[in-house]
Each structure stands twice: as C-alpha cells, then as structure tokens.
Specification:
2 copies of one chain form a homodimer.
Chain A lengths: L3 H28 L6 H20 L1 H13 L8 H18 L2 H24 L2 H22 L5 H9 L5 H24 L14 H15 L6 E5 L5 E5 L2 E6 L7 H18 L16 H15 L3 H14 L9 H7 L17 H17 L7 H13 L25 H20 L3 H5 L5 H10 L9 H9 L6 H15 L2
Parallel strand pairs in A: 1-3
Antiparallel strand pairs in A: 2-3
Helix pairs in contact in A: 1-2, 1-3, 3-4, 5-6, 6-7, 8-14, 8-20, 9-10, 9-12, 10-11, 11-16, 12-13, 14-15, 14-16, 16-20
C-alpha cells in the first residue's frame, strides 16, 4: 500500500524529472547547441518550464502535501520526511503566490531586456537600457507585493535566494565589515604591488585542462558521477546528485580563469554530489541556498586553492606541465601572484579582498531602487559616486560601472548578496573544520583533501535542502552568519602578502 | 483569434517539445552520461515518456483533431494542414489502441530482457534468453491484436515502422530478389577474393575524425544546425530540424566504421535537416518512415561513398592524411577494398550484396514466430538451417547466429524489413536523380554534391512525414517499391569488382 508520503514523493519526482530535463536542455544550450537551434531550444525550454510550473502549482500538490503533513505530524524536524514536507510547503507557497500572468510578463520583459542590456553595455549607452530597467523594477516591486513581506519589499526578493534571511540581517552583516574592508583595501593600495606577470604567460589550453582536472579529482570531485565541459560563462548544474556537471572558460594567456574557475565549480559540484543518496530524486537533493553554495565554491577556490599549503604540493606539478613559463618562479612568487589584490571596476574579476565591497555597493543600490528612493535614471551618478567612496577610483564608463552585470536585465534582484554571504560562510565553516581537524593545512600541503571534504560532507553536503542557511550555520558553528572570521582571515593573509 | 488548426498545432508543439527533451536525454545518455547516473537517467526518461504519452493520448488531442479536421475539410491532400491532420489522426489511433497497462508491461519486460539477452549473447547461451523471448513474443502477438489487422498479425507490427505497408507486399518484394541475391553471392564467392588489407592498417582516430567531418561537410551536412559526437553504437537523432545530431564509432585499426558510418549517419541527418522550415515544431518535421530514412543513409554511404567517382576526388585527400598507410595503393585497389563482399554471420558487418539476405532471413522467421508456426525453442535450429540455405555457411555458435541482434529483446518485431527496403529505395531514388541530372557521377568525381542533395531535398526531404513511403515512392519514381533497380546495381557493380 502506498503511503501518503510515498504518493507525495512520486508526484514530486515527476516535477523533479521535468526540472532535470530542463537543466539538461540548458546545459546543452551552453555547451553544445548548434547556432541554428537557438529558437527551437528556447521554445523547448519554455514548454518544459510551463509544464513543470503547472504540475507543481496544481491542486494535486496541495492535496498530497496536506495529507502527508497530516499523516506525519510530529515527525522529527531533521528527518527526511518532515524536512521534505516543510521545504516543499514553502516552495509551493512561493510558487503559487505569483500569478501566471505576472510570470509570463516577467519572462517576456527579461527576454527583451537581455538584448537591450547587451547592446547598451557594448555601446556604453545607459539611456538605451533605462526603459527596460524601469519596467523590470516595477515588475519586481509588484512581485514583492505578491510574495508579501513584513518590513520591506526587498525582504520578499531576498527570500527567494536565501530563504528566511531578512534585509535587516544582511544589512547588519554588511555594515559590520564594510569599514574594515575599505580600510584594508586602502592599506593594500598604499603598499608596493606584487608581481603577477607569471600568470599572464602563454599556457596551452589542453595542458591547462589536464592539470585542472587532476587538481579537482584530487579535491574529490567524482567523475563517475560528474562531467566537465567548456562554456563561455562557467557554471555548475546537476540533473541528479549522481550527475553533476561543471563548465570551464579557458584563456591561453591567463592561468586564473580555468584553474581557479575549475576549483570554484568543483566546490559547487562536490556539494551537489555530497547530498545523501536517500534524498536522490526528491526536491531536497540539492544545495540549500545560493550563499551556502557559494561558501563551498569559495572555500575550494580560495581558502584551499589560493593557500600557500596547496601550492607546496601543486606547484612542482604545475612546473612539470609548464617548465618554461614557471622558470625561476619560487613558491613565494607564485603564492603572491595568485593573491594579488587590485582595485578593479568589474565584480567578476575581483579578488578575495575587494569582492564583498562590490556586493555591498549593489545591495545598497538595489534596495533604494526597489523602495523608489533612487530613480533608475539617476543610477549612473549614484553608482559612480558610491564606487569612488568605496574604492577610491571612479568608473570611466557605464560599461565599466552600472552596466556590467547581467543580473537586473534577467530579473535577478536580491541575488547579489548571496555571493558575499558565501565568502563569509566559507571562512566560518573552514574554521570549524580546522577546529575538528587541526592537521588540515598539513594534509593540504601533501595533496590530501579527504578529511576536509568528508567533514564538509558530514556537516553540510549530506543535508541537502533540509536546513536553511541560518539553521545550518547554527548547527555547524553554534552561531549566526558573522563577518568577523572572514575579516580576520583577509587581514592575516594580505598583511603577509603585502607586508602591511 | 486562434483558429482550430493553430490550437491543434500549439497542443502538438508541447508534445513535440517533450519528445525533443526525451531525445536529448537519450543523446546525452549515449554520448556523455557519467556511469553513476544510469538509474536517475532511466527514471527521467520514463517520466517524460509517460507525460508525453498521457498528453498525446488525452481527450484534448482528439477534440482538437476533430475540430481542425472539420474546419479544414476539403483542404488539398498535400497541403501542410491536411497532411498534419491526416498523419496525426493515424498517430493518435495507434497510440490509443494499446492500453497503458500493456505499454507498462512491455517496457518492464524489455528492460528485463535486455540484460538477459546481453548475458546470453556473451555466453552463447540461448536457453537463458528463451523465457524472456517467449514472453516478449506473447506480448507482441497481443499488441498486434490491440492494433488490429486484416490479413496477419505481422501486418500490425510492420505498420508501426513502415506505415501502410503489408506483410504480403514486403514478401512479394523480398521473394522477387532473394534467388538473384543467393545466386550473385555464390558467384562472387566462387571468384578470387579482393584484397582489403589496406583498410585494416593503423589510422589515428583524430585524423579519421577530421577527414570524415570534411567529407560529410562536403556532402552538405549543415554543422550550423548539427553536431557530431562519439558513441558506442552510431545513430542519428534530432531535437528539431535545426538541431540534428549524429554519432560515430571509431576503430584505430579499421577505417570503415568511422568513415562509412559518418557518411551513413550524415545521410540520415541531411534528411532531417532538409524538412521544410514551415513544418518545424510540428509532428511532420521528421523523416517519413524507417525505410525511406535508410534509403538516404545508404545512398550517401554506398551509392555515393563507395563509388569509384567519389574516390577519384577523395582518395588524394585521404592519401595526404595517411600517406604511409596508403603508400602504393591505387584508386582501383582502394575501390575494390571498400567494396569487398564477404559472407559473414553478422548482419551489422554485412556488405551491400549480402545485407538484404540477412534481412529476408529475419523477416521470414519473425512471421513464423508471431504466427506461432515456429516455437522460440526451435529458433537456433531453424536459424542455422535457413542461414546455411541462404549463405552456404553455418553459424558455429548462437552468438554468431540467432542471438546477435538486440531487436527482439527490445520488442522491435517487424522492424528488420525496413533496412532492406531502404537499400532498394536508395537505388530507385538515385536512378531518378540520375535521370534528371545525368552529370551526377561527373560532379561526384569533382567533390560536388549540391545537385544530388538539392534533388533529394526537393523530392524527398522537404515533405517530412506528409507522405507514406509508398506515396512518396509513387511521386518520385512513378511506381511502387521494386527490387529490380537494386539487383541491376549490385550485378553491374560487383561483376566489375569481381570480374564475373
């Protein structure tokens, strides 16, 4: 006899399978689609997206949820059963609050805005993008009203990416480390710059790829349950916890994009691969939030991948692959080169020290846009003056300023904060791992990553979406998201690199 | 205002998009799936297949079809509108005649049978496969009853792959050329064998791939609307007429599988790419039958790709790629090598001359199995005695005999005939193209394939599924499917190669 819980799971598996097919259509679009197929692929994705939304928001989901919740009333909060019901109830509420007509209008406007934005950015023409941006902000405000909120409309949008977090909480976290960030960057800027020319030599792409694959295989990315491919914008996706895909962008005269990009995406990938097998095929079988996801990618990219210990082990191997390019380059030279801090206009090129400042700027601006206290027309001026205040330099063009990110044109408002939260969490989690296993740095310098990966698996990965970022952080650290460890980490690291 | 026809098309587009996603899941499974994902992928494919079947066989399809048929009553038979309604009415009838429970049971038995068959073939153990085969034949007989037929149950199964053709028609076609085939093969076998050692030298796979891609690009396979990848079993699939994918199997010590395999799959691919753009996204946007599809792949593989004219143009290029391997090999040597006729036990390794005989054997056996005049337990004996009668050699094992094909374990009964029909049609169609353009051989010897491809496009490809194989053949040749041209072609070609 099928229990109500099994019936719910079967229903959700159908929706999940549609979601996986949709993710495959998207992966294939970014990695293999022939140019002539763009239109048919867009239609296929839109159809599957619509079907999935229709089935999920239908009455059957509500009925099955209600029955299962009734039958399993009293189940342990952390059990698979209670967690599934709780998380899907929230998913269902969010999905059903926004009318289908609004979703369709949003999709339509985003599709228009994307082309306009790309053209505006290419031509440094903010005015061209302005009407589309105004329309999108109107729609996002309306979306916030549909979703509902207690304090501020921005809460409703933030909650879509980082469930349960409020604007006030994020603001407190950001305010608590912004001044220290500004101060650190100014100090670094006043010190003599390190030399990173070694990273800009000529590196054969095939060899870069082989080396990168070797590194992330050592990390523990499981190629029996994973694939790596090439795309213009690197990303990680999954069609099940046993089929996790990452992509890489290669440059033949810059080592960083592929090397640290692969470590970053492998960090995301190992999180997905690490979800407990008994959650496979259910909506819990994924990372819990964008912030926690980013904590994993940043940990493997930066805390491990940009550590001196890591390169004690890896540099001799890289030297075998690129003997000429690395001739005469010492461990110290290389370590400093990969930890260069540069004030740059572009977020995606930012280093560990400057990254969060780029985010805080966007977080503040987004709220004002949504509240209406900042008119989109005034954006370039406000962006540039805030940027100057934060970084001490002024974007010479809007292309290098307010037009740089794809997010707003794609309707992603409230999303940026999660990148910064990920940075903070990466150090908070790593410090806990280090407390449990003080020998970690020594292991890393020997190319041993099992202890760290298994600790992450046990404490974070296996739970999938059972707990929110706050709940998970409480379980792991005994406290809340806190910027102190991250600032301590940055100051220690960069004081040494820059001799502050 | 939406017309009833537009409503029907929109409904069918949803089903088509699900079908395309399903085809992508399958393509990815064969070309890229990590080994650990087999189970989740099977679940995803089964879900999409179920959804697609549910939506297509639902009442909405019947209602929309009825309305559109009523509104467009009297439309020209060959019009897009009348063709769509006619073909989909037939699809709907076939899809709704078989109860869902039977489909599920069939899927279940096939999944079990596949493993059993693979093991039985590996161990030359027919008895191991027998119970599964018996069960599948029972189910296929039942399926024929559900589908209905006038003369013989085999008609119902054949109709699924070659719509409108009857067993009696195929039998007449096969009977009309079987004796001549047996005679030709015996004559070839009595003549001195040609030397094909040149094809079995060492050929770098990367270079094979580049050369093959160059050949099929010259044929006219459109890489702006197509992709080539590697898989264990070569195939062609499409997710729209603007996204057609082919796969290749490479051997480093045998030139044929990749070289002629790519030509073969490109022939299928150009058929799909050649369907008229105004049919894109509709159920008519594909090849009309397996037989006609095979006529295209065989034409480009054999009539063009194994012609002396083709190698006048291509051999100098292949010699540049593999100078050592082809040292001292003349055009005549090479032409004979690629046209070697060998009596072999295995169908998929068969040449142009012996191929249809392998098929006729299966066609005769399948009918007896389905009619019950042959018990599955007696298969090995009957197979071997028939094989000896046809080829003059006896399979030493069941692995090289009755166990060689995957088809029966996959429930594909009535399918084999289409391979042979494709061979016959390839020559019938090519003769018509040659009548219209007598200069074709000369063009081929200069590496010009546009005239042939455009003729095929105009006369065959563009129509998609509008006409059945019989209708199309009547339009193109003015007559019915006829083995005479094929036998004439074989005799002329192989009399020259073997000096008969």
């Amino acid at each position: 006899m099928t229990t109500s819980y099994e019936a719910l799971k079967a229903h959700l598996a159908t929706i999940g399978d549609l979601q996986s097919a949709l993710a495959l259509l998207s992966w294939d679009q970014e990695t293999q689609l022939p140019p002539g197929a763009a239109e048919s692929r867009a239609r296929q994705m839109s159809t599957l997206s619509r079907l999935q939304h229709e089935i999920f928001t239908g009455d059957e989901t509500a009925l099955l949820l209600e029955k299962a919740a009734h039958d399993l009333n009293g189940a342990d909060y952390a059990s698979d059963e209670a967690s599934l019901i709780r998380v899907v109830q929230q998913d269902y509420e969010l999905a059903t609050k926004i009318p289908a007509a609004h979703v369709a209008e949003m999709t339509h406007q985003e599709s228009l805005a994307h082309h306009v934005w790309a053209e505006a950015r290419a031509n440094n023409d903010f005015k061209k993008f302005l009407p589309a941006l105004e329309r999108i902000m109107e729609l996002k405000r309306q979306e916030a009203d549909y979703l509902g909120y207690v304090e501020t409309p921005y809460d409703a949008l933030l909650n879509q990416y980082e469930r349960g977090m409020t604007t006030a909480q994020v603001k407190a976290i950001f305010d608590a480390h912004r001044p220290a960030l500004v101060e650190l960057i100014a100090a670094i800027n006043a010190a003599p710059q390190v030399d990173d020319a070694v990273l800009h030599r000529n590196f054969d792409i095939g060899k870069q790829r082989d080396f990168g694959l070797k590194m992330i295989e050592a990390y523990g990315f499981d190629f029996k349950r994973g694939v790596q491919a090439i795309s213009v914008h690197p990303f990680c996706t999954s069609f099940s916890i046993n089929d996790v895909r990452i992509t890489t962008r290669f440059e033949d005269s810059f080592l960083n994009p592929a090397l640290f990009g692969m470590m970053h995406e492998a960090g995301h990938g190992m999180y997905e691969q690490g979800v407990a097998q008994n959650l496979e095929g259910s909506p819990l079988a994924s990372g819990t939030s964008l912030g926690v996801h980013e904590s994993q990618s940043r940990m493997w990219e930066n805390i491990v991948g940009r550590s001196r210990e890591f390169w004690v082990w890896a540099l001799p191997q890289l030297r075998e692959v690129f003997p000429q390019q690395l001739e005469g380059v010492s461990l110290d030279d290389f370590y400093k080169a990969i930890n260069t801090v540069k004030r740059s206009f572009i977020r995606v090129e930012a280093d560990e020290a400057t990254y969060n400042l780029h985010i805080i700027l966007r977080f503040e601006i987004e709220q004002e846009l949504l509240n209406g206290t900042l008119k989109p027309a005034d954006l370039p001026e406000v962006w540039n003056s805030k940027f100057t205040e934060f970084f001490g330099i002024t974007p010479p063009t809007d292309t290098l300023g307010v037009l740089q990110d794809v997010h707003w044109s794609a309707g992603l408002v409230g999303y940026f904060a999660t990148y910064a939260l990920g940075n903070l969490l990466s150090v908070q989690y790593y410090e806990q791992a280090l407390k449990a296993h003080p020998n970690l740095p020594n292991e890393i310098s020997q190319g041993k990553f099992d202890t760290l990966r298994q600790w992450l698996n046990e404490n974070i990965h296996q739970h999938g979406r059972k707990f929110t970022a706050a709940e998970l952080t409480q379980r792991v650290t005994g406290g809340a998201i806190d910027p102190t460890p991250y600032m301590r980490y940055l100051k220690t690291k960069f004081s040494a690199v820059y001799g502050l």
